[in-house]
Design brief:
Layout lengths: L1 E7 L5 H14 L4 E7 L8 H15 L5 E11 L2 H13 L4 E6 L7 H6 L2 E4 L7 H19 L7
Parallel strand pairs: 1-2, 1-4, 3-4, 3-5
Helix pairs in contact: 1-5, 3-5
């Protein structure tokens, strides 16, 4: 399985980088994972323009043949078991490359949402995009462990 994580913005603080790196390391036996960071354009600019610019950058970064999942508060909420099952189901039906898109502080553009094959919500609470990235990586790791019946899921 190949996974691409496209994230708006960098992980600036060391603790976010260390947490993300730990889960990327744990994912290595299960999937080939790449992280693509696109520039956070919301630096006091017009939020609409920033969102459009970020969206264009994200769309350019999406691998052509991947199945795209946009992280979006209006998306489908899944349990860890359900998430694992969805990944298994996609793999079973030929989707061997999944791309997850995490927006920045102003969210994701309508163009990115429209391009997505699915929308996933990590919950109804708003999460900072740095934390959302770490939670996504942890849940991907958990999903692979669940799928293989390995201990971790409790």
């Amino acid at each position: 399985m190949k996974l691409t994580i496209i994230a708006v913005g960098r992980l600036k603080e060391r603790f976010w980088r260390e947490a993300a790196d730990e889960y990327l390391k744990r994912l290595k036996p299960y999937a080939q994972v790449s992280v693509v960071e696109v520039a956070d354009r919301d630096s006091g600019r017009d939020a609409k323009r920033a969102l459009a610019d970020e969206g264009a950058d994200v769309l350019r970064a999406i691998p052509a043949t991947s199945y795209v999942v946009a992280l979006d508060v209006g998306g489908r909420q899944l349990s860890s078991e359900g998430f694992s099952g969805q990944i298994d189901e996609l793999a079973l039906h030929g989707s061997s490359h999944l791309t997850f898109v995490i927006g920045g502080s102003v969210g994701l553009s309508a163009d990115v949402i429209e391009r997505a094959d699915a929308r996933l919500s990590l919950g109804l609470m708003t999460l900072p995009h740095n934390l959302a990235r770490v939670v996504l990586l942890e849940q991907l790791y958990r999903a692979f462990r669940i799928s293989r019946g390995e201990p971790y899921h409790k």
